[in-house]
Amino acid sequence: MKLLLLFSLVALAQCVLHKVPLRKGKTLRQSLQEHGLLERYLKQHPYNPAAKYYKTGVSSEPMQNYMDNSYYGTISIGTPAQEFTVIFDTGSSNLWVPSVYCASLSCSDHKRFNPADSSTFVSTNESLYIAYGTGSMSGILGYDTVQVRPHIVVDNQIFGLSETEPGDFFYYCPFDGILGLAYPSISSDGATPVFDNMMDEGLVSKDLFSVYLSKDEESGSFVLFGGIDPYYVTNGISWIPLSAETYWQIKMQRVSIDDEVAACDSGCQAIVDTGTSLLAMPDGDLTKVFKALGATSSGEISCEDRNTLPDVVFHINGGTFPVTPSAYVVESDGVCSVAFEGVDIPTESGELWILGDVFIREYYVVFSRGKNMVGLSRLA
Q1: Neighbouring C-alpha atoms within 13 Å toward the C-beta of 318
Q2: Which of 213, 237, 325, 380 is deepest in the core (most CB within 10 A)?
Q3: Domain range holding 130?
Q4: Does residue 326 share a domain with residue 236?
Q5: In the prediction, which pLDDT does 276 show?
Q6: List the disulfide bonds (predicted).
């Protein structure tokens, strides 16, 4: 086994791979709590994970869906490089950052891209508009060199430069922008996603990337472009075909608790989304899951009982993928609750679930564009 792992590591070193470290930091929710703004924020911006997936005449990317996200990476844009903190989001496809043209208060405490300072920037006459439900981000599209730290350099990458951003709450966001990793079919204004350009320019050995999200440590999380780290797949990889090449969408057969079907009784669709923190499901299924776990209608549960709770098991493509109580129970100010949310997104092939970071932290996840599959390997 050790020899096999050694050979795997040698092969890994010979491939064109790029491991981008992610740091686990303060969430928007925590920042708002510290400034006494959380209650007002939640009233004005009710959490709605469904809004991200509704297709309308404009791109919809609600910032409140990122309020519990705590994994951030670094990119730079331009020549010389201007650095930004972004969320690597498999639930969207566009890259955008604040710009010096943004006069909104929300931009004032973030890094802003200045096209005049970049010798490689190319402007366009195209505009970008992203609706937020209670506000909007508008801006322009441009091309420039994007470096995904530390070593990937993508030439002529199209990206959005915000000119207005919604509300004063974005001021407290611990990230500057979003780097989308979903399919180009859902990209706003037909902009080519960053990973598509990585593939087209031969910057990765394989047309895939993989994600590891650390459960506890501030460091250790990463996105690996172009390959799979053998250290994290000693339990093998279960490959799941996509049911749609838009988001990273797969089909689930059912969800069980204590060997009993608890939800998704007749099958359903699910999106594996690094840009959503919680685990979201249709409201009807949420009620069933709460009941099976002994939680209240708001999801609260006895902190004393959390170590005796059962796994929530996802049945996907003939395999079983458990999420343990240590992953789905969260404690805040002495109150325990399950990290599940209600969402109603009907599709032609079934109701939609969102497998966010609560699920992803339990697995090493491979996103294969070459196979149009998601690979899951359970972490020890």
Answers
A1: 4
A2: 213
A3: 15-212
A4: yes
A5: 82
A6: 102-107, 264-268
